[in-house]
Amino acid sequence: MEPVFIHFLGAAGTVTGSKYLIETKKTKFLVDCGLFQGLKELRNYNWDYLPINASNIDFVLLTHGHLDHVGYLPKLVQQNFKGKIYGSAPTLEIAAIVIRDSAKIQEEEAEQANKLGYSKHHPAKPLYTIEEAEKIITRFEPIDINKWISLTEDIQVNFQPNGHIIGSCFIDIKIKSKHFVFSGDVGRPNDLLMYPPQKPNYADVLFIESTYGDRLHPKEDVKEKLKQILLKTISKGGSLIIPSFAVERTQLLMYLFWQLRKEGSIPEMPFIIDTPMGTDVLDVFRNFSDWHKLSLNECSEMCKMFRMVKEIQETYQIIHTHFPKVIIAGSGMVSGGRVLTYLQHYLSNPIHTLLLVGFQAEGTRGRKLLEGAHELKIYGKYYPVKLNVEVLHSLSAHADQSELLDWLSDMNLEPQKTFIVHGEKQSAETFLVKLKDTLGWKSTVPSLYQIEEIIV
Predict the structure, then answer these.
(1) Do 113 and 16 fall into the same domain?
(2) Phi-psi region of 312 (alpha: psi -120 to 50; beta: other; left: phi over 0)
(3) How far apart are the first and last CA of the chain?
(4) Domain with 132 in it
(5) Cβ distance 205 to 179 under 8 Å?
(6) Of 65, 151, 237, 314, which is least surrounded by CB within 10 A?
(7) What is the tens place of the pLDDT at every residue in 248-272?
(8) At what angle do helices 249-263 and 296-303 cross, to 10 degrees?
(9) Are 360 and 423 found together in one domain?
């Protein structure tokens, strides 16, 4: 009998910054290593070193490749981490794309802040560099799925697809005889592109996300609603701007517009993908076709409909064209990326529409728009919000409350400990009550930097 210590270093009492340190007598490792997003008080944590010497961390396990799960990885270079980083093959390809893009944005925003003088730091510095991103990518090692793999004498892992994005998995970690199950972000059973999530059948200690733990996704015809939003916008001579997550959400939007165009439900017009990362992700879809429902032929046909923008000069050319168009641009929470360049020009014009298609964390520009902000601060300057703001909740890649409960339906025994993570306070606490009322399970919502002891 010996203790295992769980350090909640992120996504505890909040929805971002997933980072859990597992400490056994012989081994220390991380499950996910993500950036905090949204509220400034959370983003400030990104500048902190881990509360443990990173050179003593043996390895990192990644559930999937989103920024709030992998974006802190280059910081480990600064902290002298020397171990390996394990994930499914598509997760590691996505993670490489995401952190390269993040490093590029960090460097560009620091340069712009210094040029325009809107940072309180003199000089403003990037959180990490492109060079540091490249160094951490050399530590990636793909791991097989749906099989037990021994990483140490006492630790085995089993990665099982959970349907959130391409490559995403929940991880069953066996430490001696006890199973520690990390849900990662759980996908939806009827996603248009992803296969349904596999379900765990046992856990001694469960860590379950709660992004939408307090609500149900609306039952709506998403394709019809998307069509109506577009037609209403172009009837005014406006353009539809969609801030989108580059992984899965961009590809799902492409698929829906492609279907609408094939049906003749929407007119021929420019459809633009202005997220270089999103176009790189399409290559991952092509390389790992067994992870999603699109055939290679469908993927190829779909892509022909869209103009893929790489260079920022093209972005400015598109902005200064005055005919209706659809622009899908990063980032999904309007926290950075090319979409900000468009909004600088389009926010104050009521003929245009901004469509939000995913979760908007507290403190992000997307959340402010969702809540009816009358102005938005971009690169140190305020812009009045006069364009139309629409929302499509049902496009979320996160399971809602009922889908999370269904994901747990193969577990006949209550875990000895259940931790509700990756959710804002209301969402996590609501799901805690729901677990008690429906399954009779007791659970805990951990706080940031809390440490829990488990005996194995």
Answers:
(1) yes
(2) alpha
(3) 6
(4) 3-215+397-455
(5) yes
(6) 237
(7) 889 999 999 999 999 999 999 999 9
(8) 80
(9) no
